[in-house]
């Protein structure tokens, strides 16, 4: 009987430790697991891309999504027109030309030229984490779960030039309304986190 009670106590202590780790370290565990893979939610071809800004920072509007280039802890690209009037993005000494720029109101825009393969993916974390201690005194509604959402832009040119951009945000789950839009920020871990131009 004593052996059973000791085993039960150890099991309960282990379960409590796992739950505490999940609650207090869930964000970090989720980030770690996301390095190995995420779950695809949607993928769509890019029909239009527009830039709202003054050259650095601003918003990159991909189809109907507004992806921020502000307050990023990662890459800080510059966007404007190239010498031959193409909308271009520059980062780390490399330039990627999207295509012929056209003006829309005060913004620069482009439609993917024929032959380009351009798409945007939305992916989510494998692991969500509970947030029992989050309180919102303004609205009275607090999320009970959170997870990371990833927005991945891939644009390939026929000669082999490729642009990849990755944004990470947090998505909140509310018991009444379900998962909210995935554009919540968390200092130091959200925003544009990766940008590669190759070759």
Largest sheet: 7 strands, antiparallel
Extended strand count:
15
Q: What is the end-to-end distance?
A: 68 Å
> What is the C-alpha radius of gyration, as a whole number of Å?
21 Å
Estimate percent helicity.
10-25%
Structure classification: alpha+beta
On the 0 to 100 scale, the average pLDDT is: 86
3D structure, described in words:
- The chain has 199 residues and is of the alpha+beta class.
- The protein has one domain.
- Helices cover 17% and strands 44% of the residues.
- It is built from 1 helix and 15 strands, in the order αβββββββββββββββ.
- Strands 1, 10, 11, 12, 13, 14 and 15 form a 7-stranded antiparallel β-sheet that branches. The chain has a 5-stranded antiparallel β-sheet with strand order 4-3-2-9-8, with no helix packed on it. The chain has a 3-stranded antiparallel β-sheet with strand order 5-6-7, with no helix packed on it.
- Strand 6 (86-91) and strand 7 (94-100) form a beta hairpin.
- The longest helix is centred in the first third of the chain and has 33 residues, at 2-34.
- The mean pLDDT is 86.
List keywords for this structure.
single chain; alpha+beta; five-stranded antiparallel beta sheet; 1 helix
Describe the protein's topology.
Blueprint: H1 2-34, E1 39-45, E2 49-52, E3 59-62, E4 65-68, E5 78-81, E6 86-91, E7 94-100, E8 102-104, E9 107-110, E10 117-124, E11 129-130, E12 145-156, E13 162-174, E14 178-179, E15 191-198
Antiparallel strand pairs: 1-10, 2-3, 2-9, 3-4, 5-6, 6-7, 8-9, 10-12, 11-12, 12-13, 13-14, 13-15
